[in-house]
Amino acid sequence: MNQKMSGAPLPASREPRAEILRRIGEPEKTPEEILAEYSGISREYNRAGSLGADGRLQMLEDRLREYDAVVYRAHPQALPEIIAQILTGRGKARIAVPRGIPAEWLPAGFEFVLGEDSSAPELDAMDGVLSGCTVAIAATGTLVLQNVPGQGARKLSLVPDYHLCIVASSQVVETVPEGFAALEQSKCSPTTLISGPSATADIEMTRIKGVHGPRFLDVVLIA
Amino acid sequence: MLVSLFITCYNDTLFPETGKAVVRVLERLGHTVEFRPEQSCCGQMHWNTGYLSEAVPLIRHFVEVFRDAEVICVPSSSCVAMIRDHYRKAALASGDEQFLADVESVTGRVYEFSEFLVNKLGVEDVGAYFPHRVTYHASCHSLRSLQLGEIPFRLLRQVRGLELVELKGLDQCCGFGGTFAIKNADVSSAMLADKVLSVLNTGAEVCTAVDNSCLMHLAGSLHRQRTFTRTAHLAEILASEAI
Amino acid sequence: MHETRVPGWNEPDFPSAAKVLLEESQLRKNVKHATNVIANKRSLVVGELKDWQKLRDAGSRIREHVLENLSAYLLQFEEACTRAGGTVHWARDAEDANRIVVELVRKHAAEEVLKIKSMTTEEIGLNDALESAGIHPHETDLAELIIQLGKDRPSHIVVPALHKNRQQVREIFRREMHLEDLGERPEDLAAAARSYLRERFLRIPVAVSGANFLIAETGGVCVVESEGNGRMCLTLPRVLITVAGIEKVLPRFQDLEVFLQTLPRSATGERMNPYNSVWTGVSPGDGPEEFHVILLDNGRSRILHDEEARQTLKCIRCGACQNACPVYRQTGGHAYGSVYAGPIGAILTPQLHKLEESESLPYASSLCGACYEVCPVKIDIPEVLIHLRGQIVRRQQETGKLEPWNIGMQMAAMALKNGQRLHAAQRLGRIAQAPFVKDSGFIEKLPFMLSGWTQTRDLAPLPAESFREWWAKRPQSPSGPKTERKR
User: Fold this and answer.
1) Quick check: A6 pLDDT over 70?
2) Residue C11: what pLDDT?
C-alpha cells in the first residue's frame, strides 16, 4: 500500500482498455455509417429565436437581473465613463484585465493590472476583474467567456470577488443553439458559461448569491 | 353500438356495483352491452410484480376472449394501461406473430370507460343527477399512461346537482401501486396519509376516480379513520339519476 | 468483479430502511420541502420552453445513438483528448479507477486533493481509497462539504445534503470549522464555506472531478455547477484528474445545445446554472499543466448489452426523477442504501451491483410514472423496473426458492386463468374471508404477507354477489340474451 512512486512513469497498462472495449463490443459500423446515423437524428427543437435586437437585449437584461446581476446600458462612447461610475460606486480601485482588453474601454484613475501575469493569490487580492465576452445568450441570461484576447485565462473571471463584463449588442443571441453556433469556431478554447454570480441553493433550497466564484456580477450592455 | 364490457377481475369480484353502473350508463345512452363470461384478468398484477411469464397466459386469454369484439369498454385505467403499454412487448417476446397481430388489433379497440364516453361516443352529459360535494382523484395510469386530462372533469361537470371540488396534489400517487401496498406497506401508508389528508381537506362527501384500486386504497384509510367521506367509481356517479 | 459496492453502503433492504426513516420527522420535513421547491421551480422553467418535448426527444435520441456506437465514440474521444494534451486512462472497475487516482496523486507527492462533487467518485468510493492511501480529499461543493464534515452520506444526486436543515448544517460547521459564533442564515453558512475552502483552493496542487459530458469530437469535458468550487478545482491546481463513466460521451460540442437546456432546468429549476465549464486537454497558461481522464466501466458495459435496460445509461444525473418520486419524497435518499437513490437508483444500483444484493430496490416504486414524465432523456424507468422485477422473479424461481410470494402468485395465476376459475375463486373467497370480517363489516386484520395492507387500512369484504353472478341472473336484459357471445 505504501510503495513509493517517486515520479516514476505510470505502468501504461493497455489491458483494461482492451478489456473494456471488448466488453462494449468493437465498432460494427464504419465512421461514415455512424455519421449518417448521427446526422439523421431529428432535432425539431427551436434553433433560431424570434425576437428583434431590442427584444433580445431586453430579455438578456431581464434574465441577468433575475439571477442577481446588475445590468447597465451604455453608448460605446460613454463606456469608460460608465465603467468609472460603476467601479467608483463599488469602491473598486485595482482591477485585473485580460490581455487584449480594448484600451478605449479603460477609464483613467484606476489601476488596471494584466491578470494573466498574476498568480491566483495575487488575483485574490485584487478588487475585481473587467472583461468582455464571446457571446451572450438572452434566453438563459448567460455570458460565455473563452480564452481569447479581451477575456483571458479562466482564473481571471473566477478568483476576484467582483466581475464587470462588457457585452456588445452584436454579441447577443436569443437561444442556446444560436449561442453554440457562435462558439463553433472556437470550441476547443477553454470556455466558461456564466449565468449570474456564483450561487448555491444547497441549504434548504434557499438561493444564496456568491460562494466561491465572484459574488458580484455587473454587466454593461453596449447599445 | 355493441359494447363488450371487460369488467376486470377485481371489479368483478370486489366492485360489482361499478360494473352495474357501467351497464346502466351505456344502456341509458342506447347502446347494447355484452359480457363475455370467459373473461378473467388482464395480467397486470403478475406483470407489474415481475411474474412476466405467468402474465402471458392471462394476456393470451384476454386476446382470445375479445378478439372479435367491436369495442371493449373497461372501467379501470390501470388495466387499460396494462393492455396498451405492455401487451405488445409480451407478444413480441413470445415470437408468435399471430399473437402479436391479435394484440395489435385488439388493443386499438380497448377504451377506458370515461374515455369511451367522451372520445368514442362523443358524450359528456349522460343525464346523471348526483347532489353531492365530490372531489376527483386522478389515478397515475389515467393521468400519465392514458393521459385522460380533462375527460373525467368534463363528465363530472355535466352531472346535475354535483359540486366539484379541486383535490390538491392531483398528480401525486395515492401509494397503492398494486403489490407495492403490501411489499412496501410503510411507504405506501405514508403516501396514503398525504393523499387522505388532501381528500379530507376538500370537505367532499365523495371521492371519485376511474380506478377502484386507488379508491379501495383510499377507502381503507378513510374507513379506518372513521371518516364520513366515502368513495365511488366515476361510473357510479354517472349512473345516478333523479328519482 | 462487479462487487463495487462502497464499504458501509451495505444496507438493510428498502422496506426496512424506509420504515426507520419514516419515523424521522425532521428529515422527512427537510426532504419534502427541498423536493417541492425544486420540482416547482422545474415545472416553471420547463413550462417556459414550448419545445421541451422536442428537446427531450432529441436528447433521448442522441444518448441512444451514443450507446449504440459507444466504442467508436470512446476511441474518438481518447484520440482527440490525447491530441489536446490530456492523458486517457481506462478503468474496468472501482479498484482500477481508485488505483489510478492514488498513483497519480502520489506521483505529485500530494497529501491532499480537492474534489468537485461527483456521483461517479462516490460510486467507486474514491474518498475511502484516498484516505487509506494517506491522502486527504477535500470536498468543495457546499453540500458535499456538509456531508464530509458531518460524516454523513449523500441522499440526492444534485443536492446531496437536502436532508439537513440550516440548524443542522450550522452545528456541523461550528464543530468542524471551529466557528463558535457562526450564524444560521444560509448566507452565513455559505460565507463560512467560502473562507474555509479559499485557502485550500489556492494551495492544493491536485484536483479530482467527475464529468457531466465528454465530447468525442474535440476531446473536451463539460462540468456543470453553481458555486464556482468546480471552476476553482478545474483551473487553479497544477494537476486535474477527471473520473467519468464511459456512458458520458456526446458526439459533438454542438450537442451541448440540447443538454445545457434540459439539464439545468431539470436539475435545479434554473434556465442555466451559474457556471458551465468546457475544456479540452491542456491549454498553456490557462488551467492545469497536467490533465487525466479516467474512463470508468464498473458494470456499465454489462448494462449496455441488456436491450431493455440499456436506456438506464442515457441518464444525465439531473435528479428530476428523485424530486418527482412520491416514494423518494417520503423516505429521502438513504433508504435506498445506495449512492444513487430514487427512481434512477432503483434501476441503476441493481444493475451496477449484483442484482441479488439489491432485490428490494426495483420494488421500491408504485410505478406511478412521475419519473418518466420528468426525465429529460426519456428513460422509461417504470418499464426498466418491471424488467428488473422479472429478472429477480426468474432467478428466485430458478433457485427453487419456496418463496411465499412466488407461491401466492402461482396460485393467483391459476385462479385467474379463465372466467370459470375466477368464479370458483370468488365463491371460495367468500367462505375463506368469514373469520376475518369484523362487526364493523370490514376486514381489519389480514394474516401473513397480506398484513401490510391492514396495518393502516381496512378492507371491504367480498360482496355477496360478484358482477358475473349478477349478470348471469340478470332477467332478460335489454342487451339481449344474457350470456350469449355475439358471433
Assistant:
1) no
2) 58
Q: Is the alpha carbon torsion for C193, C199, C202, C208 positive or negative? A: negative
The strand pair at B230-233 and C275-280 is best described as unpaired
- What's the length of chain B? 243
Please report the pLDDT score of residue C476 as a whole number. Answer: 61
**CB < 8 Å from C in window 6-35 of A:** 7-8, 10, 16-17, 19-21, 23-27, 29, 31, 34
Q: State the nearest Cα–Cα gap between B208 and chain C, in angstroms.
A: 17
Residue A200's pLDDT is what? 87
- C41-89 pLDDT, tens digit each: 999 999 999 999 999 999 999 999 999 999 999 999 999 999 999 999 9
Choose from C30, C83, C224, C256 for mutation: most chain A CBs within 10 A: C256
C174-225 pLDDT, tens per residue? 999 999 999 999 999 999 999 999 999 999 999 999 999 999 999 999 999 9
List Cβ neighbours of C366 (8 Å cut-off, separation of 6 or more): B140, B173, B175, B176, B177, B178, B180, B181, B188, B191, C326, C327
Instruction: Using an 8 Å CB-CB cutoff, list chain B residues near C330.
Output: 187, 190-191
Please state whether the predicted TM-score (pTM) of the whole model is above 0.80.
Answer: yes
Report chain B residues whose CB lies below 8 A from the CB of C458. 219-221, 223-224
Residue listed under C-alpha cell 457531466:
C212
B197 in C contact zone (CB under 8 Å) = no
C-alpha A105/C-alpha A95 separation (Å) is 13
What are the pLDDT digits (tens) for B8-27? 999 999 999 999 999 999 99
Average pLDDT, chain A: 92
ipTM given for this complex: 0.97
The answer to whether A168 contacts chain C (CB < 8 Å) is: no
Binding-face residues of C in 428-447 toward B, CB within 8 A: 429, 440, 442, 444
Closest approach of chain A CAs to the CA of C146, in angstroms? 9
d(CA C329, CA B189): 13
